[in-house]
Amino acid sequence: MTFKLAASPHSHQRRTTQQVMRWVYLALIPGLLTLIYFFGWGVIWQLGLAITTAWVAEAICMALRGRPIGFAWRDHTALVTAILLAISIPGLAPWWLIVIGTAFSIVIVKHVYGGVGQNIFNPAMAGYVVLLISFPVQMTSWPLPAPLSQFDLSFIDSAVLIFTGYTPNGFDLEQLRMGADGMTMATPLDSLRTALNHQLTMGEALQQPIFGSLAGIGWQWINLAFLLGGLVLLKVRVISWHIPTGMLLGLAIPAAIAWLFSPDQSVSPVMQLFSGATMLGAFFIATDPVTAATSNRGRLYFGLLIGFLVFVIRTWGGYPDAVAFAVLLANMTVPVIDKYTQPVAYGHGERS
Amino acid sequence: MSYKEITWQGLWENNPALVQLLGLCPLLAVTATVTNALGLGFATLLVLVGSNITVSLVREWVPKEIRIPVFVMVIATFVTVIQLLMNAYVYGLYQSLGIFIPLIVTNCAIIGRAEAFASKNPWRRSAFDGLMMGLGFTLVLMVLGGIREIIGNGTLFDGAELLLGDWAAALRIELFAVDYPLLLAILPPGAFIAMGFIIAIKNSIDHYREQRAAKPAKEVTRARVTAQ
User: Fold this and answer.
1) ipTM above 0.85, yes or no
2) Which chain B residues are closer than 8 Å to A137 by Cβ?
3) Which of A97, A104, A134, A140 should one mutate to test binding to chain B, selecting the residue with the greatest count of B CBs within 10 A?
4) Domain edges within chain B
5) Measuring CA to CA, how many Å separate A181 from each of B3, B134, B175?
């Protein structure tokens, strides 16, 4: 009998990048649908703009670098970057916002560093941070979730608003964001921060109409939908459990400690977990295989660090949500994490 | 070193901002507009020429061991002179540059030239070297300021009257109207990104020139090196 000798690696990952990316955007669908339900058709237009920009930018970059364009299009990573960025920004933001952000993500964050697999920072989140720093007003103008809004924009109305700044009826975004009482409402995390800064207790802050049974109206369902999509990704083993678990624990533990000590002045852990971009960040953004840590132990630390940073920035930082900043800061630590969590090869190390 | 060589070194080959990467702090902090860039570049240029001449003149009498403190004192004197002059004559610009005028003292490009060139060369050449290094620095500042001002605000030479007098208000060019300035370009991160691109362009030009200048392989002539 003959022994067949096969070269390493001995275990195979049969999925191509394209298949992995396809799973990622399939798993985003439940979150996307709830997002459209609560924040209107604008989300679809933002998606279209983002994907178009990403493809054009990718083609231009590949042409400049003298590489085959089709190759970059086929791996679908630009598509996922575009989708993540499009669902991170307010649905009715002006069209140039998403175009600038996506172009920055693809050209500067991805291709200047050498294209797929070479980037240090998560492209979608770097683009998001560029937009948030450059255009803070547009980036925090979230429309009201559908149950609170007094306007119902059609598909075409949303497009007219995104491209011209006014709906066909002459309303601008600021007017659309007003509730029935004529007051503009901020996102749940933003309202909490403002309320706490005004010396209100948590109980008083939660009286505002934007809060539902679990977290903010709309936002809780969106986060649950992203959680569902994330669990699907876990189930089909596109991502491992280490980063999401790490991030959620890293956020929930300090939040729980703060909440137990002073429930009146701190945001409850449940609210932290189901508000803003927590679930999207934990399952879809932090798990980017390129910019996250490599080993399983490293991934756990990486996730914990992101969660903890989210808590710190949400509590004491200058911006209402923190996932993007936390992910970028953690991206910087990845080389160090990788260095100290490198697994010991079989037969080496102390116990051998 | 010939004057031509000094010019080439200062403006391109050994440019303080693009190649030596010295003085990045003011470079990145104040180049939000062309006017600020020009003001700071001009101030640095004057300090550089003055300190180079002085250091070169006293180089025979400064003991090697304490040369750095002496150079710093000379530079600090010139910076103080420039600061007082700017305070007196271009007050608006003085205010918009703020702390970065006194901080010229810590600009490594200046002490670097004192140490590397002026302390070893006669004063005329040192003065010329200061002029060329200062011009190289100023040009990079202006290019960077121009890029950031165009991307951030869509204008050029905004506020030039602060530096050049009232007639210069006519210099202001509005390339396109922006409703919302792109803050990233105006804030320091934009300066880092733009600077990276400028350095990359400079390197690719050098690369291209090298490739063109690459002569056909020389005939190898072997010399006998072993002694008999």
Assistant:
1) no
2) 180
3) A134
4) 3-213
5) 75, 61, 42
